[in-house]
Amino acid sequence: MFKFRLANVKRLREHRERICLEKVENCVAQFNQALKRRKEIKYKIVSLEHDFSQVLHGEISAEEVLLYRNYLTYQYKLLQLQDAVVEEKKQSLEEAKQKLVQAMKERKIIDKLHEKQYLNYCEEENRREQQFLDELALNIKRR
Fold first, then answer.
1. Distance of alpha carbon 36 from its chain centroid, rounded?
2. Which pTM does this prediction carry?
């Protein structure tokens, strides 16, 4: 019966790979959410600029113009902050991907070692079986 001596290490590497995969999935979700929020802010800015240009064609007080400009400035600052968040999430995603690739490599190394040891075990078992059959044939021939 074949028993892989590094079975615990193999399970550990598989577990690490699953954890890294979950982290990548989480980072992808966070990155997509940050992109969505950025898109919403951009849409809001475009909408505000359009509304502002429409309002400027009519009668408007200086206070209202100031209010629109301040709100647009605020939205642009939000957009800059969101751009920084998007960049941070992108970097986190890249780091998680690199860790996943490393974990996959480590698991594949153990898998190949397991396969190699199993093939060696099978060859050894076949040799023993062939020896047994050869001895059995010799004993039958001697009788």
1. 19
2. 0.78
